[in-house]
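Hello everyone,

My group is preparing for a crystallization screen and wants a predicted model to guide construct design. The compound we'll soak is S-adenosylmethionine. Before spending weeks at the bench, it would help to have a computed complex in hand. I've included the protein sequence and the ligand's SMILES below. Output in C-alpha cell form would be ideal because that's what our pipeline reads.
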Amino acid sequence: MKTSLVVLGIGMILAVVESPCADSVSTSAAAARPPIPYVASRNDAVQDMLWMANVGKDAIIYDLGSGDGRIVIAAIRDFGARQAFGIEIDPNRIRESRDNAQKAGVADRVEFIQGDLFTTDFRQASVVALFLGHEPNIRIRPKMFKILRPGTRIISHQFAMGEWPADKEQTVRSIHLGMWGIAVGPFTHNPRVPDYRGNERYFGTSGANDKILMWVVPAPVAGVWRGKIDTAQGPKDFRLVLHQRLSESTVGGTFQISDQNDLTGWIVADVWGDHLRYWCNPDKMPYGQDQMWFDGNVKEDAMKGTLTAKEGGQIQERGCEAQRDKADFTGTWEWPSLTSDSHSVRLRIEQRDGHPVATYIDGDKELPVPDFYDFGGGFYFTMLIGRKEHSLVLSADTGWLIGDGVLEDGAIKGRIEFHPSIVPDGKKASVYQDWTPRLTEQ
Ligand SMILES: C[S@@+](CC[C@H](N)C(=O)[O-])C[C@H]1O[C@@H](n2cnc3c(N)ncnc32)[C@H](O)[C@@H]1O
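Reply:
Good plan to model first. Here are the C-alpha cells for the complex, ready for your pipeline.
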C-alpha cells in the first residue's frame, strides 16, 4: 500500500493511503509502473466480497494477486466454491498460501499459480476477485472483457473501474483508524473518464470506508439487430441499433418497426450478463400508448425473448427474435480532431489473433489504444491524448478521448467525447459530438 505521512498542523500526522497502486494508468509507462504491493484484505472484508459475489457450489473463483491465499481458501472453506485459484507473482506468497491451504484442510481443492495476472489465463472463472488498485483495475479490464463469459462476476475490494459504474457497491466499514487518504488528479471528479476517482475518496476516519464493488460482465450487445415481431396484423420487420458504452449503466439505441406507418423511437436497455431488457419509447406516440418492452437473452449474434406490447389497452406477449448484422470495423477511420480545427486524426483497427486491435494516429504519432472493447456490432475505446511521453502534461489539449461506434451499413456511427484535463480560461468544457468517421483505408 502506498502510504506517505502528511503533517497537518502541530502534532497532527495523518497517513495518506492513496491505493495499493496510486499512479494513474495514463501517467506511467509500463516500465515505470510501481509494483502492486502486498496488503492483505481483512478477513471480514473477504467474507463480504465472497458474499456479494454470491459464491456457492458452482463458483470457479480466481483471485488475481492472491497474497497469502485468504480469498481462495475462504471461497472453498466457507462458501463451498467448486474450484478456487490464486494467481500471484511473489513466490514467497505462493509458499505461504500453500501452507495456509494445508492448515485449512483445503489443499486438494485450491491451486496457486505463480505468474503475472496480466498474462496468465483465467478465462474459466465465474468469479474474479481483485484487491489491486485503480490503475491495475483499469489495465486489466479490457482483458476481462476479451476472455470472460458474460455473467462472470468481478468483485473488487476498495478500488473501482474508472468510468465503468459498479452494479453493486457497498461500504462495509471505516478502516485504518487514524488514516485519511485522498485521491487527487486532473480528472478525479469526472465520472465519464477512466481516471475518475470520486468513488474512491476517503473522507476521514468518521467517513465510511472499505468498499466492496461488484460488476457483472455484460454480453456484447452493440450493433444493428434485425428480426420479426408477431403482431395482431401479422409479422412485422423490426430493426434495433444498440450503442454500448462502459460509462453508462444502460445501453442506448433506436428501434424501427416497418409497415405502412413506420414506428420509430429510442430504446433504453439494461444488460445483466446475457440478460437483456429494453423499453421502446416511440417518437410520435402519446405517452402511455402502444408501449413495448422486451425481456430476453443475447447469445453471440442471436437475441431471443418476449416482446410485451400494450395495444389498445390490452397487454400482448409475443415471441421476438433478432439476428445481429456481421460487423468488421477493420480499416483506418478519420475525423476532424476535437482539440484543433486544423487537422484530422485517425483510428486504425486491425485484426490480430481474432481480436480487433486499435491504434490512434495523430500526424506522425501512432499510439496503441489498449483500452478498446469489441462489443459485437460496435466498439468502445478510451485513451488519454495530448501528453508528452508518459507524463501528464496539463495543457488544454490533454484529455480523455472516448468513443463508441456501431457499424451501420458499412459506416461507423456513434459518439465521441473529449474531456480536457484542465479548464485554463474557465471556458474549456467537455465536448460531446456525433461521430461518423470516414473510412480512408480498408
Ligand atoms: C493488495 S495485495 C492483495 C492480496 C489478496 N488478494 C488479498 O486481498 O488479501 C496484491 C497482491 O498482488 C500481487 N501482485 C502484484 N503484482 C502482480 C502481478 N503482476 N501478477 C500477480 N500478482 C501480483 C502482490 O504480490 C500482492 O500479493
